[in-house]
Design a protein that fits this description.
The protein is 28% helix and 26% strand. The protein is an alpha+beta fold. A hairpin with a 5-residue loop joins strand 20 and strand 21.
């Protein structure tokens, strides 16, 4: 802990500092030789006085990482509306006779980024009330609301981590699955491997072993196959070691979705006799059920507090489909973000390649992000949902463990941005004198001094909290 942070621990009040003194303290802090070589773009703006408070190379274009989600979120709230709900629709080309649907069952996705197991239960329960228990035809899944590009430009080269899951208009559980690994019952036995939720899309190959002691050395590898994924678990786990959870994305969203739908149908006593098919829904079919997501005002909180890349990209493609026509694409979505920024007077200098910020190719300045924050603050219809989507410093989200027990805790709503060598933080701050500030701090460092950059940001925030009116 630095001396500056230590001085602010243990109390909610601190002596105020005049504006010039705050400016001088932050300037002096940034001149520390320890920070040489770091690139910074910092801009702090008083929303009460409509004037800058502090700036350092505020127009410098740097990598903002997930701070870009603040742009995607605000554009979505503006263009889709806080009450927007994502739909999943079910259709048939047949008719219900007794307990049998004589025809095919179509399921069309419209981009719901949070169609998870709990929602599938509700959807299936609604379907059950229609009265049939058997589908004579095929289960046909339709994701034509989006284009067929599963990935966005992010430099990850199709990794298997959950944060890099493939996209799709009909996606279940963020297109991820959880794998739990526990020690076996005795030494020499394989580890216990549990896939959650249960489904037949994942096949497990368990090459692990329970040992008497030593270090846990478990590898969980997702191996893509033509119509399913294999989870290979190998390595050693000591007897008595705690369970560990691993998240992996899946390779084939539609095969995964089909497996999950069939699982929930079976639990409700509904069987589909035909095979799975993946194709567009014809215009001649009859709609039999529409399931709606929670409103966007709720989903953007999940997006920003935990920095969910999948939700951001799904929302971007949904905006594209709704505003520019189907199929929704990342490129169309980026055009919308460009139009949004142009409306704020931001016409050039930035580079956007996706909606989540998961790329070193995204570029923005602190001044540009503060313009976005200023617009969000001044639009009453947008601000409540916008600010509540951000993490509360020292309380929740990705800033839960920052500045706990200091003057800043609870006074700041912010979005973090993190890549290797990139630490960004943007949001709103309420000073001790009840003055609201919009701020953005983007820091890039080729030496990857990420912890040092985060600590520096924390110290700046503490000085800003003391700002006198």
């Amino acid at each position: 802990m630095t001396l500056t942070l230590a001085l602010f621990m243990g109390g909610s009040q601190a002596f105020g500092i005049e504006r010039d003194a705050v400016n001088q303290k932050i300037t002096s802090l940034l001149q520390n030789k320890a920070y040489q070589g770091m690139e910074m773009s910092i801009h702090v703006y008083s929303l009460k006085k409509d004037a800058p408070v502090f700036s350092k190379e505020e127009h410098k274009i740097l990598k903002p990482a997930s701070n870009l989600k603040l742009v995607t979120t605000l554009a979505a709230l503006k263009y889709l509306g806080a009450d927007y709900k994502f739909k999943t629709k079910l259709y048939t080309d047949g008719k219900i006779e007794g307990d049998t649907l004589k025809g095919n069952l179509y399921i069309k996705g419209f981009g719901d980024p949070k169609l998870v197991s709990e929602q599938l239960w509700f959807l299936t329960n609604d379907l059950k009330r229609l009265g049939f228990q058997k589908v004579q035809g095929a289960l046909i899944l339709d994701e034509s609301f989006f284009d067929d590009k599963r990935t966005v430009r992010n430099g990850s080269h199709g990794g298997q981590r959950a944060y890099d899951a493939p996209l799709g208009a009909l996606s279940i559980n963020f297109n991820t699955t959880a794998i739990y690994v526990q020690p076996g019952n005795q030494v020499g036995e394989p580890a216990k491997v549990i896939v959650d939720p249960t489904h037949d899309y994942i096949r497990v190959i368990n090459q692990s072993k329970t040992t008497a002691g030593g270090k846990k050395e478990i590898l969980v590898i997702r191996l893509p196959k033509k119509t399913h994924d294999v989870i290979l678990v190998k390595g050693k786990i000591p007897l008595g070691a705690p369970e560990k959870r691993y998240y992996r994305n899946i390779s084939h969203p539609l095969y995964y979705a089909a497996s999950m739908f069939r699982r929930f149908f079976k639990e409700q006593g509904i069987s589909v006799l035909g095979k799975n098919r993946f194709e567009a829904t014809p215009l001649t079919v009859k709609e039999i059920l529409t399931y709606e997501s929670r409103p966007l005002r709720i989903l953007v909180s999940d997006l920003n507090k935990i920095s969910n890349n999948f939700i951001a990209e799904q929302i971007l493609k949904t905006m594209a489909a709704e505003l520019k026509g189907t199929p929704g694409s990342t490129d169309k979505g980026l055009t919308i973000l460009g139009e949004f920024l142009k409306g704020l007077g931001i016409q050039n200098g930035y580079t956007l390649v996706n909606g989540s910020g998961l790329s070193y190719d995204n570029k923005m300045s602190a001044a540009q992000l503060v313009e976005v924050l200023k617009y969000g603050y001044r639009e009453f219809k947008l601000f409540p949902e916008y600010v509540s989507s951000m993490g509360i410093m020292g309380v929740d989200g990705t800033v839960k463990d920052r500045l706990k027990g200091t003057l800043a805790a609870g006074r700041i709503r912010a979005k973090t941005g993190s890549l290797k060598g990139v630490v960004a933080l943007s949001g709103y701050l309420l000073t001790q004198k009840q003055e609201t500030l919009a701020f953005s701090m983007i820091m890039n460092d080729t030496k990857n001094r990420d912890v040092m950059m985060e600590t520096l940001q924390n110290e700046i925030l503490l000085y800003l909290c003391q700002l006198e009116a």
